[in-house]
Structure formats: structure tokens, C-alpha cells
Model the fold of this input.
Amino acid sequence: MSSEEKYTVLRPEAEKLDSSVSPLLKAEVVMLNGKGVKNLLIDLSDVKYIDSSGLSAILVANRLCKSLEGVMVLSGLNENVKKLIAISQLESILTIVPTANEGAEFIIMDDIEKNITQ
Done:
């Protein structure tokens, strides 16, 4: 985990985001949300496989960020993870970008847009 000015980066260092890892990710997200972190970049570059518990943790992160009027961005998805998200029909709900750098740019631009419209 690393914290930038406008967002926090979570990068699960596991090949499988399954029931053995997902509760830890979910707990981390809940803790960060409790501290007021509203923008998350979850970099899945190391993740090769994800199951329903992993998707659940990601959806919790997305919901908690939105509850604070922030955004959650996923980056670094491999083909298997992309397919599961597509099969689950979550591409329209989740913000997905190819790289962590693009995710950081998206979050910064989103924050600027929100500040302009307020």
C-alpha cells in the first residue's frame, strides 16, 4: 500500500484473489474508508486469478469509495480477470484502466472535475 496526495494504491501481492486473500483486502479497504480515504487505485498486476470473494472485495471497495464521493479504479488486469469481470457484467459498474499510471491520472482528473462542479 502507498498513499499519494489524492489517492491510495493497493496492490495485492498474491496470484490468486480468492477466499484466502479477499478478507484481508476487504478489511484494508474498510480501514482506509474509516480513515477518510475516498480514492483508491487497486493495481491487480500480480493477480492471475480472481473468484467471487475477490469480486466481492472489489465491489465493497467501489461502494465505500462512492459513499465518500470518491472513486475506485482497477488497473493491471490480465485476460482471465478481464473475462470474469465481463462475464459478471461488472464493466459498466467498475472503472478499469490498463495501467496504474493511467489510474492515477483518472483519479486526479476526477477529483479536479468534482472540485470544479462544486
